[in-house]
Amino acid sequence: MSPTSRTSRAFRGTPLLALPAAVLLALLPGTASAYPNPGRVTGDIVVHDPTMIRASSGQYLLYSTGDGLQARTSTDRIAFGRNRSAFTTLPGWWSAYSPAKDPWAPDISFHGGKYLMYYAVSSFGSNTSAIGLATSTTGQAGSWTDQGVVHASGPSSDYNAIDPNLFVDDDGTWWLSFGSWWTGIKMIRIDPATGKGHAGDTARRSLASRPTGTKAVEAPVVIKRNGYYYLFASYDTCCAGTGSTYKIKVGRATSVTGPYTDKNGVNMMNNGGSLVLESHGRYIGPGGQSVMPDSDGDLLVYHYYDGQDNGTPKLGVNLLSWSGGWPTAY
Questions:
Q1: Which of 231 and 89 is assigned the larger pLDDT?
Q2: Residues of the chain with CATH 2.115.10.20
Q3: What is the 3-state secondary structure (H, E, C) of the chain?
Q4: Among 104, 132, 193, 235, which lies 20 to 30 A Cα-Cα from 324?
């Protein structure tokens, strides 16, 4: 472990501006130590596409791809134990989109006195896909009630309805971003009363794409900080173990529907995006991310492939600093 990696962990929870100058320099983008190692996690940490929330009890609830949406819990954000899966009975409609009935990329949140979980069902490499919604009063494994299809795509679509993320704006407007490859990241408006598409606004907006070269952009996350909307996304190739080239990029906008541009002013609709985290050392292909606010700041929660463990996908958690108006993992 590098000295900078140890320093990053030692100063977790400390305001960035309070750090010593030498430490601050080591954490700035563009230096040799720009990408920190994940914070310490233990237990059952083999995951893909993790999403996490902190319940009112203080318990952390983590869900991830596979097995009817795998469930884990933690009391300290370090030790994670595997519970059952979200669903005890798999919804029948899944088979129309995935012969294996294998749900992907959950997104958990709490609104209106209940937990919501958007998720995707698809066959790998296909855009015959659908986003579903489940609700729960507790958020615990086995407690979820499926609410059916929210949005779908098919062979004639120029987009892929997977990797959903719910964002609720300051004015109470609900938005769902999603997308993978094809023409990139999309956004639709959601009716808070149903958790599904808004009948009065059926437009499908485009937020990010890669019109030239690879089409590999997916896993959007939208949050608002300090007057800006930020769009995080995973770029390049996932799910190839140590051959993965996944990385996390970000852009920002003054409107939730964009345009989102990176630090250099490049529109994310034209292959823009500023790096937040990429491969470094044993930590290969970080992505499939979510962003979670906690008592000590915003958390970047993601998976990576462990180069010292045959490319096994594992849980990564880092804090984010917003110094300078852009997120920096530390």
A1: 231
A2: 44-329
A3: CCHHHHHHHHCCCCCHHHCCHHHHHHHCCCCCCCCCCCCCCEECCCCCCCEEEECCCCCEEEEECCCCCEEEEECCCCEEEEEEECCCCCCHHHHHCCCCCCEEEEEEEEECCEEEEEEEEECCCCCCEEEEEEEECCCCCCCCEEEEEEEEECCCCCCCCCCCEEEECCCCCEEEEECECCCCEEEEEEECCCCEECCCCCCCEEEECCCCCCCCEEEEEEEEECCEEEEEEEECCCCCHHHCCCEEEEEEECCCCCCCECCCCCEHHHCCCEEEECCECCEEEEEEEEEEEECCEEEEEEEEEECCCCCEEEEEEEEEECHHHCCEEC
A4: 235
Q: How many CA atoms lie within 13 A of 250 on its CB side?
A: 25
Share of the chain above pLDDT 70, in %: 90
Q: Give 207 or 123, the one with higher predicted confidence.
A: 207
The Cα diameter of the chain in Å comes to 57
Structure tokens at 264: 């250099």
Q: Could you tell me which residues come within 8 angstroms of residue 57 by beta carbon, excluding any fewer than 6 positions away?
A: none
Find the catalytic residue in 107, 218, 236, 298.
Answer: 218
Average pLDDT, the chain: 91
Question: pTM of the prediction?
Answer: 0.90
Examine the pLDDT at 14 and tell me if it is beyond 80. Answer: no
Residue 228 burial by Cβ neighbours in a 10 Å radius (0-12, 13-18, 19+): middle
- Residues 44-329, CATH architecture: 5 Propeller (2.115)
Catalytic annotation on 49? yes
Mean pLDDT for 97-102 is: 89
> Which residue, 193, 184, 148, 321, is CA-closest to 259?
184
Among the listed residues 49, 146, 278, 306, the single catalytic one is 49
Cα distances (angstroms) measured from residue 226 to each of 238, 252, 259, 325: 31, 11, 17, 8
